[in-house]
Write a structure and sequence with these properties.
The chain folds into 2 domains: 36 residues, no CATH class; 54 residues, SH3 type barrels (Roll). The protein has 3 helices and 6 strands, in the order ααββββββα. It has a 4-stranded antiparallel sheet. The chain is rod-shaped, with a radius of gyration of 31 Å. The termini are far apart.
């Protein structure tokens, strides 16, 4: 068993391109071009997918109802509600409600359903 075929191919290819240094440079350059090209394609695809997901999330958010606070209150976690505050219900689980308080940077919050029913126009 020998590797004469592979050696012969390498030496023939090296002679055709002007020597082994040129062959190595061609192989490396081709690898870099293929890598960079596939990287660009993958990044563009990921960007498009994220854009579609973001549009879908914004559409869902626009479809959710916004509730208004009609009485002041404070949750067990210390979240204060003032009259006129607005919130959106994201999820519910038994007595816990995950809300997004409009114009608040620290969203989301878990609040009891009972509290929301007492201080706002929220109904289960």
């Amino acid at each position: 068993m020998s590797n004469l075929g592979a050696y012969q191919w390498l030496t023939t290819a090296a002679k055709k391109v002007g020597g082994p240094k040129n062959l190595v440079l061609i192989i490396a350059g081709t690898g870099v071009a293929v890598y960079k090209g596939s990287e660009i394609v993958v990044k563009k695809t990921v960007k498009e997918i994220k854009k579609k997901i973001r549009i879908h999330q914004l559409t869902e958010m626009a479809d959710t109802k916004v509730y208004s606070v009609t009485a002041e209150g404070i949750s067990n976690e210390g979240l204060a509600f003032k009259i006129g505050d607005q919130f959106r219900v994201l999820e519910t689980d038994k007595d816990a409600v995950l809300i997004e308080k409009i114009d608040n940077d620290n969203n989301p919050y878990f609040v009891s359903e009972e509290l929301l029913m007492n201080i706002s126009n929220y109904k289960c």
